[in-house]
Amino acid sequence: MPVFVLGAKRSLYLQKYMLEKAMVEKVFLCRDNELRESDMRQVAVAGLETKLVVYKVKGKVYITDALCTHGKAVLTDGDLEGTTIYCPLHGGGFDICTGKAASPPCTVPLKTYPAVVEGNDIFGLLGE
After folding, report:
1. Torsions phi, psi of 76, nearest 5?
2. Contact by Cβ (8 Å): 98, 85
3. pTM (2 decimals)?
4. 55: exposed, middle or buried (C-beta count within 10 Å: 0-12, 13-18, 19+)?
5. How confident is the model at residue 22 (pLDDT cuts 50, 70, 90)?
6. Would the pLDDT of 1 be above 80?
């Protein structure tokens, strides 16, 4: 299994899986105990242009792209209220469960990714 460096001290483990006939990669993102309730963390993944955000809300983990689809602002600079992340630039919101634009001026959905928690490790299933 290939190993890539994530940050200075972490390793990134990639495994290929077939899900719904689409090739996806199971990518380590962070440790579950590093996220408090109603917390979020931006992560960079080797080989992926965009950064991601990992959220923990009511004990469940969600993953989205890190940039607002309207103003290209970094969403971790915004406010997380329940399962809605608000962009720091124009205040538009997205539902982190579905990616759906929840309030103007945002209209284009935010890309979401399935999350897998195994023990203390949080993985994203990243596809084409």
Report:
1. -70, -10
2. no
3. 0.81
4. buried
5. low
6. no
